[in-house]
Structure formats: C-alpha cells, structure tokens
Write a structure and sequence with these properties.
Helix content: 25-40%
Oligomer: single chain
CATH architecture of the largest domain: Alpha-Beta Barrel
Mean pLDDT: 93
CATH superfamily of the largest domain: Dihydropteroate synthase-like
Number of strands: 15
Number of domains: 2
CATH topology of the largest domain: TIM Barrel
Shape: globular
Largest sheet: 8 strands, parallel, barrel
Radius of gyration: 20 Å
Number of helices: 11
Structural class: alpha/beta
Strand content: 15-25%
Length: about 350
C-alpha cells in the first residue's frame, strides 16, 4: 500500500511463471526473479472502501493510475519498483531461492507438537536434525499462540527458550525467537538469536520495537486480528488480503520511523490468526500482493487447522500433504520463506518443484 492524502493503491501480480522466457515481452520479474509476471490486479481504495479495480500489464499501471491523480500515479510507480526490486539478504540468507524455517516449539501445549520438545536437550537435538534435513532457520518458541491459548509467565518462557537458543546458536544455527515479549526478545538475542518472529508485529509490547531496532536484529512482522484467546471470535474484514496488507504496511512504517529499515523486515500474513477458512484461502491465493511491501515474505501454513477443514478434519500430524500443497502454492505466489514442522518432507517437495520449473 502506498497512501495519498485520500487514496491508497495495491498491485497483485497475476499469472506468475517461474523462469519466464527471456524473450517474452511485457514481463516483469518479481522481487528480482526467478519468478515473473505479465499482468497485475490494481486496486485503489479509500480506507477500506474500494474505488476501482482492474487487471493491467505492469507497464500500463501508471497510465491506469493517472485517472486518480498524480499522487496515485506516483504511488503506483513506487509499488511497481518494490515488486520488481531484488530482496536483500535476510539475516544473512540470500532470497534468490526459497528458504525453510523449522518450527521448534519448547512448549507443553502447542497445537500440533506440544510436549514433544519440552526437554531442552531433546529440543536442541531435534533442531540440529532439522538443520541437517534442510532448515535454513530454526524458530524457537516457548509460548503457544494457538487459538484460545493463555499467556505464559515471562520467567517460564525464558526458562524454556534461552538455553535452547544458546545451544543452537553456539552450534552454528541461524536462530529465530518466536515471542511477543521484549524481555524474551532481548535475552534470546543476547543468547545468539538473530531474528525476532513476533505474532503482534512488534506492537504487543511497547519495548519490543525500540529493542529490535537498536539490536540490529531482523524481524518477522505477522498479522493477527486480536490476540490468541479471542482472535477466532467472528473475525471480519472488508477485503481480507488487502486489509492485512494495509496493517502490515502500517507496521513497516512504524518500524522505519523507529530506525528499523525495511531491509531487516519480513512480513507474514498470519494464516489462521484471526481468520476463517475462507479468509485463509483468499490470502493464500493473493500472496503476491505482499511483495508490493518491498520486504521478504514468510508464510506459515504447516499443519494449520484450515487444512483439516478443507480436506476432511484430519488431526494436526496428519496434515502433511495439505501443508505441502499450501506451502508450494504460496511459493508459486512469491513467498520466499516457509515456516514448517516437517523439514525433510518439505525440502524434498521443494527440490522436485524447483527442478520441474527449471526444466519447463
């Protein structure tokens, strides 16, 4: 979203093709490639009220936007630039290929693996095994944020995560701390974490944003409607993908104002966090719109409940096929980091998917 005095514009790439032919006219590379697109859906909104929507080639977007004034034209050019610009490395990882973030919950009550890694030694061993299986990042969490979850005392969260973060970082792993508390962020970063993954997008604790900005850490800003205990109580949106986009744009602006640059930010639309099944499916289908924010895009769909509801109510650990399908669909729409429980299986699916695209 780029905002004018009254209007904002978003662009969603359509018909994305991996490794588009070099001779094809009218194509624009998405985030520097290898994906490209030849059409995009342009939307102008005033707040949550849609004023216009059209499908146009990228080169024609400024001409289409000119009907809404010079401010919208300039905003559209800015979004086009962000859509096509290569992404800088995220916490040292280049984003010229998809990356995997392994989920390492050190909790007794997470929705799909609670209790399995509550022992720190088991958590460290499993984390290192994930790295061997293909994980580029390990995301360590000590508090469940599943729907309906109650907060954990900060001292208990620290007791769970800090030893695991330190051991994994000392072993050479790239560690992310999954928390919404500034104190946990600070102690985890001191223990060797390099990424903060916050379901509140650094808005849940007033100390979070200044701490992360000063620490030089990278951050994942996730969208969540409400908080875990209440987020699934009748969530509503005017347009789920675009409302989420606008919230994330606002949080990016807040980060930049605090001295945390866009190059250190990834965004996550928060599948399952304050969203119905229909909202989740629309967001997944529209993933490419978040590339217009000019940040790395992370997607977490692994074992989410919407998969069971779509496919027949399977238990969390029986949702691997649906997780792979949703994850690959997200990658095909521009996501570059997948947050997953099943690292080896996802790495295999990703390798085959990528090989097919290269030989198309």
């Amino acid at each position: 979203m780029i905002t004018t005095p009254t209007l904002c514009v978003t662009l969603r790439p359509l018909g994305i093709d991996r490794y588009p032919p070099a001779h094809a006219a009218g194509w624009m590379l998405l985030a520097g490639g290898p994906d490209g697109f030849a059409l995009c859906e342009a939307v102008v909104r005033e707040g949550a009220v849609e004023r216009a929507r059209a499908v146009v080639p990228p080169a024609h977007v400024p001409t289409w936007a000119a009907a809404f004034g010079d401010h919208v034209t300039e905003a559209a050019r800015t979004v086009l630039g962000r859509l096509s610009a290569p992404r800088p490395a995220f916490a040292g990882l280049t984003l010229d290929r998809p990356r995997l973030m392994g989920v390492l919950n050190v909790t007794p009550d997470s929705f799909s693996d609670g209790g399995e890694r509550f022992d720190a030694g088991r958590a460290v061993a499993d984390g290192l095994a994930m790295c061997e299986a293909g994980a580029d990042i390990l995301d360590v969490g000590g508090e469940s944020t599943r729907p309906g979850a109650a907060p954990v005392p900060v001292e208990e969260e620290l007791r769970r995560v800090v030893p695991v973060v330190r051991a994994l970082a000392d072993a050479g792993a790239l560690v992310s701390i999954d928390t919404r508390r500034a104190r946990v962020m600070g102690e985890a970063l001191a223990a060797g974490a390099r990424i903060v993954n916050d379901v509140t997008a650094l808005a849940g604790d007033p100390g979070s944003l200044p701490l992360v900005a000063e620490a030089g850490a990278h951050v994942v800003l996730m969208h969540m409607r409400g908080e875990p205990r209440t987020m699934q109580i009748e969530p509503t949106y005017a347009d789920a993908p675009l409302d989420i986009h606008d919230m994330l744009a606002g949080r990016i602006a807040a980060c930049e104002a605090a001295g945390l640059p866009r190059a250190r930010i990834a965004v996550d639309p928060g599948i399952g966090f304050g969203k119905t099944v229909a909202h989740n499916l629309r967001v997944l289908e529209s993933m490419a719109v978040y590339q217009g924010l000019g940040c790395a895009v992370l997607l977490g769909v692994s074992r989410k409940s919407f998969i069971g509801r779509v496919a027949g109510g399977e238990a969390a650990k029986q949702r691997l096929p649906g997780s792979l399908a949703a994850g690959l669909a997200g990658l095909a729409r521009g996501a570059r980091i997948l947050r997953v429980h099943d690292v080896a299986e996802t790495a295999q699916a990703l390798a085959v998917w990528s090989a097919i695209a290269r030989h198309g």
